[in-house]
């Protein structure tokens, strides 16, 4: 579910709510239900350049799914059921 709000001619705010059930672990590697809430901002510097910073909170409900590393030797199993994420995109349209 997305909620977008136009603040001005060059700025939008976004609230994102998501729920999905990875029944076999095929999408994420961990069989569990997930929910997420995220808040973002989109700002256009020009018709070609925009940035999209966001912050999000992810939660796994049936099993720990975060803070693991399967590429390590030995592999480290996930040991957390939540994660905070801060990210930003810089998009150059051409």
What this model shows, in words?
With 94 residues, this protein is mainly β. It has one domain (2-92). Helices cover 0% and strands 59% of the residues. The chain contains no helices and five strands. The chain has a five-stranded antiparallel β-sheet, with no helix packed on it. The protein is elongated, with a radius of gyration of 17 Å. It starts with a strand and ends with a strand.
| Strand arrangement across the biggest beta sheet | 1-2-3-4-5
Helical run tally: 0
- Backbone structural class: mainly beta
Alpha carbon gyration radius: 17 Å
Largest sheet: 5 strands, antiparallel
The count of domains is 1
**Topology as H/E string?**
EEEEE
**Helical proportion, percent range:** under 10%
Give the termini distance in whole angstroms. 29 Å
β-strand amount: over 45%
Strands, total number:
5
Q: What is the averaged pLDDT score?
A: 95
Large-scale geometry: elongated
Q: Could you list the spans in which at least 5 consecutive residues all have pLDDT below 50? A: none
Could you give a quick summary of the protein structure above?
The chain is an all-beta fold and 94 residues long.
